Amino acid sequence: MDLSQSPCVSLAAGVAGKTSRSERSPPGLLVSFQDPTEWLAELLNAVDIVDLKAPAKGPLAPVAASTVIAFRDLLASRRPLSIALGELAEFDPQRLRVHLAIAAFVKLGFAGLAGETDWEAYWRKALAEIPTTATAVPAAYADYHAAAAPSVEEIARLAANSGSKYLLIDTYSKSSGSIFDLLDLDRLQAIREWTHRLGIRLVLAGSIRDENLRTALQIRPDWIGVRGAVTCGGRADRIDPRAVIRLRQSIWQQTEPSALENTLDSLKDRRTTR
Q: What CATH class has 25-272?
């Protein structure tokens, strides 16, 4: 199937940006899928991390085991697979054993744990159940009050204290607005500077779209995570591959020129040495 057969309304398509990354390169792109029929091989050049979740059931609701297996077979190790496992308060490793066995990254949220005296114990318990083949990623919610979760800063400190090298900031309720409606730019930049100093890689998500992409890029995350921005309509609708490629292009076009020129020079050098 080629991109001209996308099930959505027409969007400008083009050549996707190179996905190899360095310290100065634009952020990578994480796209959340809910069904293997949404995947096209053409997306390999646009998507850095393939993420799986069931958006109609919650912000981090896991997909069925059959979906995980299908994506494993489709990707054949060509892209890392990230899988949402739900909230820590409901984490059941036996039910999710297929997810845990296949994932490169697993995401867990902290909804409902703000009132717990030792909420960090839920994270420590989950870590003991996650195989060494998967990397656990704590998910902080920008609308943590609505989620009854610890604050973003508390989750960031947990990541540092537990040796996690990744942090996801997302939104819990998609009706709360974007991440930038909930956390001001100065606060996000302070978190980013702190995580960068500690070697923690940041995934920024939460209704990031064309209209706020430039703001997202100012934070300098390591990855930008999306779903609703690249579907045919709402979050539960199908992925439009052309929208994914268009977003990838926008990330490159809006990244500071020095970073883009540096990467293009690198690609040019590679071609001349062949």
A: alpha beta
Distance (Å, rounded) from C-alpha 183 to C-alpha 200? 19
Positive or negative, the Cα torsion across 83, 84, 89, 90? Answer: negative
How many whole angstroms separate alpha carbon 50 and alpha carbon 43?
A: 10
For the record, the structure tokens of 25 come out as: 């390169």
pTM for this one?
0.86
Query: Are the CB atoms for 45 and 36 separated by under 8 Å?
Result: no
Mean model confidence pLDDT for the chain: 88
Q: For position 174, what pLDDT does the model report? A: 83
Low-confidence ranges of the chain (pLDDT < 70): 1-24, 256-274
Phi (first) and psi of residue 218, to 5 degrees: -65, -25
Q: Which residues of 208-228 are buried (b: 16+ CB within 10 A; e: fewer)?
A: beeebbeebbebbbbbbbbbb
Cα 267 to Cα 23, 106, 254: the distances in Å are 15, 32, 19
DSSP designation for 231: B
